[in-house]
Amino acid sequence: MELKTQPFLLNIGPQHPSTHGVFRMRATLDGEVIVDLEPMFGYLHRGIEKLAEGRTYTQNIPFTDRFDYTRSMLNNLAYVSAVEKLAGIKVPERAEYLRVIMSEMMRIAGHLLAVGFMTNDLGAMMTPLLYMWREREKIVDLFEMVCGQRLTYNYVRIGGVSHDIPPEFLPALKKFLKEMPGYIDEYDQLLATNEILLARTKGVGILPADLAINSSVSGPMLRASGVKWDIRKADPYSVYDRFDFEIPTGTVGDVYDRYRVRIAEIGQSVRILEQAIEQLPEGDVCAKVPNLLRPPKGEAYSRIESGTGELGFYLVSDGSIAPYRFRVRSPELLNLTVLRDISRGWKIGDLIVIFGSIDIALGEVDR
Amino acid sequence: MNHWYYFVDLFAKVRITFVDWLQSVDLPSSLIIFLDSIIGITLILLFVFPLVMIFTWMERRFIARFQLRYGPNRCGPFGLLTPVADGIKMLMKEFIMPAKGDKLVHWIAPVVFFTFALMVFAVFPIGKGKMGAFSDLNIGILYVIAIGSLSFVGLFMAGWASNNKYSLIGAMRGVAQLISYEVPMVLAIVGVVLIVGSLQMSEIVGKQTVPFILLQPLGFLIYFIGGITELNRSPMDQVEADSELTAGYFTEYSGMKFVMFFIGEYVNAIAVAIIVTTLFLGGWKGPFLPVWFWFVLKVVAVFMFLLWMRATLIRLRIDQIMAFSWKFLLPMALINVFITAGEVLIWDTWMSSWESFPWPFIFVNFAIAAGLIIVWARVFFKLGGGRVEVGGYRARNSQGYGADPQAPVS
Question: What is this structure's pTM?
Answer without folding.
Answer: 0.83
